[in-house]
Design goal:
Strands 3, 4, 5, 8, 9, 16 and 17 form a seven-stranded mixed β-sheet that branches. A six-stranded parallel β-sheet has the order 12-11-10-13-14-15, with helices on both faces. A two-stranded antiparallel ribbon has the order 1-2. The longest helix has 13 residues, at 289-301. The chain is 27% helix and 25% strand. By secondary structure, the protein is an alpha/beta fold. It folds into two domains: 2-149 and 287-335, Medium-chain alcohol dehydrogenases, catalytic domain (Quinone Oxidoreductase, Chain A, domain 1); 152-283, 3-Layer(aba) Sandwich (Rossmann fold). The radius of gyration is 20 Å and the shape is globular. Bound molecules: zinc ion (ZN) (2 copies). One zinc ion (ZN) is lined by residues 92-93, 96, 98-99, 107, 109.
Length: 338
């Protein structure tokens, strides 16, 4: 099969022929039609996130969509030709408290596609039958691929924010994840305030259902602090600490702040402010299998949109560079039909 292989951190991926994997017991072999490229792939490509044991071959990608080509021993409920998604979670331990509580995305023993096991920048990928995503026949692979990570992460963040219809939500960062969050929240009857530095992204956010849009400029914190209608929840999808003061400025007492972007640097947090407001601060990582089923159902009933650039496998490296430089205007999706 053709695959884009990571030969060295930060180096261009090598597109070459490698052995087609085989589905072992409990596994599916999925022939991919499309695979999205996520910002986490950039972190892994650069070596900022490194697995304890690198998979061989080391193939990135955790937003795969394709059809089941082979079914391993002991698999029930999957047939050849079924449409399947291959998401971030390859498997989890199934017996820690998080797994037993149905919160397996917080399992500390999880294995991820494109990090711990080979991922979807390849024509074929092996998935665990319990973690592969059931997709309706005929669903469009290209627009569905980013839902496998960006979409479920946005949905999981909204669930963590515990939003109800009529409440107000501030979405910080209107790239792929933020734009999904805008649409999902708007469909739930939540009033969305979209915040980004880029006016083009704010235009998309308005088109996708945001009630208000705020430019993240030097005056943002002051404008939010002076706004009479504070938000019930704020979700940060922007990979920066710069949004922190603005989240503090716009959140109402007993509001919920959800960290969805991976930001390693600490932020200033006043315990006095926390005791006085009762604000809840939490984090989120992709989503559970139940949340995945829910976001797929939402997407199947009416597609969740995002600006998508379709590329061939040979342009995967170029896309990683564009994402790293912050130049991408939306999501990149590798199509294997080209
Ligand atoms: Zn991802
Ligand atoms: Zn676990």
């Amino acid at each position: 099969m053709r695959a884009a292989v990571l030969a060295g951190y930060g180096q261009p991926l090598e597109v070459k022929a490698v052995a087609t994997p085989v589905a072992g017991p409990g596994q599916l072999l999925v022939r991919l039609a499309a695979c999205g490229i996520c910002h986490s792939d950039v972190h892994i490509w650069k070596g900022e996130v490194q697995p304890p044991h690198a998979p061989s071959p080391f193939i990135l990608g955790h937003e795969g969509v394709g059809t089941v080509e082979a079914v391993g021993d002991g698999v029930e409920g999957w047939d050849l030709g079924d449409m399947a998604g291959v998401p971030w979670l390859h498997d989890t331990c199934m017996h820690c408290d998080e797994c037993l509580d149905g919160q397996e995305s917080f399992c500390q023993h999880q294995r991820a596609h494109g990090l711990n096991v080979p991922g979807g920048f390849a024509e074929y990928v092996v998935a665990d039958a319990h973690f592969a995503v059931r997709l309706p026949d005929g669903i469009d692979p290209v627009t569905t691929a980013p839902v496998m990570c960006a979409g479920v992460t946005a949905y999981g963040a909204i669930r963590r924010a515990d939003l109800k219809a009529g409440e107000r939500l501030a979405v910080f960062g209107c790239g792929g994840l933020g734009l999904y969050a805008v649409q999902i929240a708007a469909r739930m009857g939540v009033e969305v305030v979209a915040i980004d530095r880029d006016p083009a992204k704010l235009d998309h956010a308005r088109r996708y259902g945001a009630r208000e849009a705020e430019r993240a400029d030097a005056g943002l914190v002051e404008r939010l602090a002076g706004h009479s209608d504070k938000v019930h929840a704020a979700i940060n999808f922007a990979p920066t600490t710069a949004t922190w003061d603005a989240m503090i400025a716009c959140i109402r007492p007993r509001g919920r702040i959800v960290a969805a972007a991976l930001v390693a640097e600490p932020v200033p947090l006043s315990q006095e402010w926390l005791t006085g407001t009762g604000v809840t601060i939490t984090g989120t990582s992709v989503g559970t299998r139940k949340e995945m089923a829910e976001v797929v159902a939402l997407h199947a009933s009416r597609p969740l949109l995002n600006p998508i650039e379709v590329i061939g496998l040979e342009r995967a490296s170029e896309a990683l560079e564009q994402l790293e430089g912050g130049h991408a205007q939306g999501r990149y999706v590798i199509s294997f039909s080209r």
